[in-house]
Amino acid sequence: MATLETAATIPSELTGNGHPEWQYLDLMRRIWDEGSERIDRTGIGTRSIAGAMLRFDLAEGAMPLLTTKRVYWKTATREMLWFLTGETNIRPLVLQGVKIWNEWPHARYVKETGDPIALEDFVQRIADDESFAKQWGDLGPVYGKQWVDWPTYRYRKDGLYEKGEGINQVSEVIESLKTSPGSRRHIIEGWNVAELDQMALPPCHKTYQFHVSGEGSKAKLNCMLYQRSCDVALGLPFNLWSAALLLRMIAQQVDMEPGELVWMGGDVHLYLNHAHLITEQLSRKPQGHPRLEILRKPDTVFDYKIEDFAVHDYNPLAPIKAPVAV
Predict the structure, then answer these.
(1) If we measure between CA atoms, which residue out of 177, 182, 170, 175 comes closest to residue 145?
(2) Per-residue pLDDT tens over the stretch 250-306
(3) Residue 29: how many other CB atoms lie within 10 Å
(4) DSSP label at residue 128
(5) Which helix (H) or strand (E) holds 261?
């Protein structure tokens, strides 16, 4: 298997004293050099390893925002705020200029109607025509729907089931962090087995578990994210930012300091058609230490706006474009 001879050498500082981004670059190199080649759902093919872990200390505003290529953190933030609304239609994202979910409903529309409409034209119709968006812009019960409105069903005496009130997992976790910080049940779960076939894409970042270390004014909120499937080149930079952002928002709501984000991946892969991105990014070195400032504390975690976040000291290297596998 070919290796990336042009890539920068990963330094011994990975042990803990160096830039935290080296963890990400080392993972990328290891997958490309050692991963097994597989034919995946998209037909593009990947190099993949089983299991990986990254750890990031979020003290003093630190965030896992990559500097070896520009990551559009406002786009990722808008997506996270969209998740928290429980919305499943792409139209609110489209109206904000967020493009990351467009390919899935477009592919469904083309398949089901036979109309070979260009992606850009499809997205414009989503923006301009609310009824068209209602019919073709929905993704099914993805992420946010499960987070804030997990469906429940109750067994009746006549042997039938009736739909119950949905569960807001985010609200319940925040309440349990306030009332029982030592609990081992602070979990937000997206993998609803009964509804996977209704989703445009089953959740990749599926399980968030929160952990409190310390007590009182010294309490720190940590988050462990398990991601069943991870596109390291395009997806992971967004996933790391978003998970850290969710941790920061919840920490503020429960009056705790941000602690550590621990990311764990299951099928951790790179797409074969991303070779140019990988080669270029591994030739670069991390620079600077971006920090996030939350400018106000809303009444609830569901009331944050994009204007509430400011990033300081972020001077990344140029973006590197690559196709998204659908």
Answers:
(1) 170
(2) 999 999 999 999 999 999 999 999 999 999 999 999 999 999 999 999 999 999 999
(3) 20
(4) H
(5) strand 257-271
CA distance 166 to 136: 24
Domain over 15-73+168-312 is classified CATH 3.30.572.10: yes
* pTM for this predicted structure: 0.91
> What are the distances in angstroms from CA 33 to CA 37, 66, 75, 226, 279?
10, 21, 31, 24, 11
d(CA 246, CA 229): 20
Q: Is 204 a catalytic residue?
A: yes
Q: How does DSSP assign 36-53, residue by residue?
A: EEE--TTSS-EEEEEEEE
8 Å CB contact between 79 and 204? no
Residues 6+ apart with CB under 8 A from 17: none
Q: Taking the domains of the chain in order of start, what are their residue ranges?
A: 15-73+168-312
Q: Residue 80, SS3?
A: helix
Catalytic residue among 200, 204, 221, 277: 204
303 C-beta neighbours (distance < 10 Å), count = 13
What DSSP state is assigned to residue 303? Answer: G
Q: Which residue type occupies 233?
A: A
**In Å, how far are 42, 171, 180 from 116, measured between CA atoms?**
19, 42, 54
- Do the Cβ atoms of 311 and 73 come closer than 8 Å? yes
What is the distance between the alpha carbons of residues 176 and 167, in angstroms, rounded to a whole number?
14
**What separation in angstroms does the CA of 147 have from each of 140, 244, 320?**
13, 17, 32
Over the stretch 68-103, which tens digit does the pLDDT of each residue have? 999 999 999 999 999 999 999 999 999 999 999 999
